[in-house]
Design goal:
Helix content: 25-40%
CATH architecture of the largest domain: 3-Layer(bba) Sandwich
Shape: globular
Number of domains: 3
Distance between the termini: 57 Å
Radius of gyration: 23 Å
Bound molecules: flavin-adenine dinucleotide
Order of helices and strands: EHEHEEHEEHHEHEEEEHEEEHEEEEEHHH
CATH class of the largest domain: Alpha Beta
Largest sheet: 8 strands, mixed
Strand content: 15-25%
Structural class: alpha+beta
């Protein structure tokens, strides 16, 4: 079996808190019996252990490896496979869709600009149609072929879907494209040679292993690959406690879009509070626990309204409900001031889910690694700042950046050994347009 050796950087040290030290039996930190509570963790006391050097078995070799099976990841993987790349999709959970399904975030926000122009098509539109292919909700009539153009100025092209149906449909859709899907696989780190990622290292039920790759797409939502690959990233800790959930209420399932108030600018905490980060294990745990407390309070309040009627929690989110956590700081950064500003590097467009009017032309530079030549990024961790991050993080735009990143990775793997910087832009743009991705300069100001 082929093997890779992890870089010295990765295996050199594992930091442990005193409580963590107890778990591996460091003297003095282990409670003598179970009658005493374990001491509280004391993070940051500087203790370390040295991880022994080891070879890691290689279980696969692909043109394109996509990390994360949310909407961005499935769009990227299918786009790569359709472009002829052998493609592997790695997901730590046991379903596809990420926040859209496991997080019960069931509103597929608009594909239009609110002024009657459809700015998202291609896989972004295919995924919207797939989300309601079970007949759960109709697509607005004016957005069907030959729909009323005047109505399109008034009714936005969006739908609400059933997460369970979508979960089933996404898996079938991804497998039908020829993508090799692997669940229960957590991305851990990369093995690099110079500026190229040669392998991604993962942990699963089978232990630690590596996947060789020509190109990688980071669709982890939290820029996990970027962070491990040494890319410049930006983290914010302004997330609030949140979790959309369903109740069983008067013999019906009802969606409760539970969330604390959140700021439109990810750099500003709402109400001056501290907020949560999504790139820190303790903070992720704290956010999940606070969110569940909020759900319990919400349930109590709902029960209080009709105490004689039975009301139960039915379906809870099973992944943390973070909006913006850590992202790539790319060569290009999408900003609010880019509204309707054409960019030559355009690989897709998006409207603004919050209001009618704005259009953003998304440049390839916001999806490409700065120090890793064969890394592209998709979804809520692309390089977009301030309120523009709030615009690009939503489901339809994640599909757009997924399709662009996956297509770029596949073409780069085919033509340039994975090096996206050597991929001629016009080749990528032409391919995306053939796939139905709109890039309409006439809509620029
Ligand atoms: C409370 C809330 C309400 C929202 N409301 C809406 C809404 O109404 N409409 C809308 O369009 N958007 C909404 N959003 C935003 C939107 O749902 C998400 O931003 C979008 O779905 C993100 O897609 P993604 O693929 O980039 O990331 P994610 O959905 O986060 O997917 C990332 C995937 O990667 C996996 N992953 C992460 N790390 C690893 C790893 N190390 N190894 C392997 N796998 C990994 C995760 O398990 C996950 O499946 C909301 C978000 C929140 C939190």
């Amino acid at each position: 079996m082929a093997r890779v050796v992890e870089s010295a950087d990765r295996r050199r040290f594992i930091r442990l808190s005193a409580a963590g030290g107890a778990a591996v039996g460091l003297a003095g930190a282990v409670p003598r019996g179970f009658s005493q509570p374990a001491p509280p963790p004391r993070p940051g006391d500087g203790q370390t252990v040295t991880e022994p050097e080891r070879d890691v078995p290689v279980w696969g070799q692909y043109d394109v490896v996509v990390v994360g099976g949310g909407i961005a990841g499935v769009a990227a993987a299918v786009a790569a496979a359709r472009n002829g790349a052998s493609t592997c999709l790695l997901e730590k959970e046991f379903a596809l869709g990420g926040l859209a399904t496991l997080g019960n975030v069931v509103v597929y926000l608009p594909l239009c600009d609110g002024m009657g122009n459809q700015v998202i098509a291609g896989i972004g539109e295919e995924l919207l149609r797939l989300s309601v292919a079970d007949g759960f909700n109709p697509i607005p009539a004016c957005w069907l072929p030959d729909g009323d153009m005047e109505q399109r100025r008034k009714v936005r092209y969006r739908v609400t879907f059933n997460p369970a149906s979508y979960m089933l449909a996404l898996e079938e859709w991804v497998l039908a494209s020829g993508v090799h899907l692997r669940y229960d696989v957590r991305f851990c780190t990369v093995v690099k040679r110079g500026d190229t990622i040669q392998a991604v290292v993962v942990e699963s039920k089978s232990g630690r292993s590596a996947v060789l790759c020509r190109a990688v797409v980071d669709a982890s939502g939290d820029a996990d690959v970027c962070a491990r690959a040494g890319e410049p990233t930006v983290s914010v800790r302004t997330n609030v406690a949140a979790g959309w959930f369903y109740t069983w209420d008067r013999q019906q399932l009802r969606l409760v879009p539970h969330s604390e108030e959140f700021g439109r600018d990810p750099n500003l905490a709402p109400k001056g509070e501290r907020g949560f980060a999504g790139d820190d294990a303790d903070d992720v745990t704290a956010q999940v626990i606070e969110s569940r407390k909020g759900i319990r309070r919400r349930l109590e309040a709902l029960r209080g309204k009709s105490p004689d009627k039975p009301l139960f929690a039915a379906i809870l989110p099973t992944i943390p409900s973070f909006r913006m956590t850590r992202r790539l700081h790319g060569a290009a950064v999408v900003r609010e001031s880019d509204d309707r500003r054409w960019c030559d590097g355009c690989v897709g467009m998006t409207g603004d889910w919050r209001k009618a009017g704005p259009i953003y032309f998304l440049p390839l530079g916001c999806l490409v690694g700065v120090v890793s030549k064969n890394l592209t990024v998709a979804g809520r961790c692309i390089s977009a700042d301030g309120p523009a991050w709030d615009v690009t993080r939503v489901i339809p735009t994640c599909a757009v950046t997924g399709e662009a990143a996956g297509t770029a990775a596949a073409l780069a793997a085919r033509d340039c050994g994975g090096d996206v910087s050597r991929l001629p832009l016009h080749v990528l743009q032409r391919r995306l347009q053939e796939q139905g991705v709109p890039m309409d300069r006439r809509l620029a100001r």
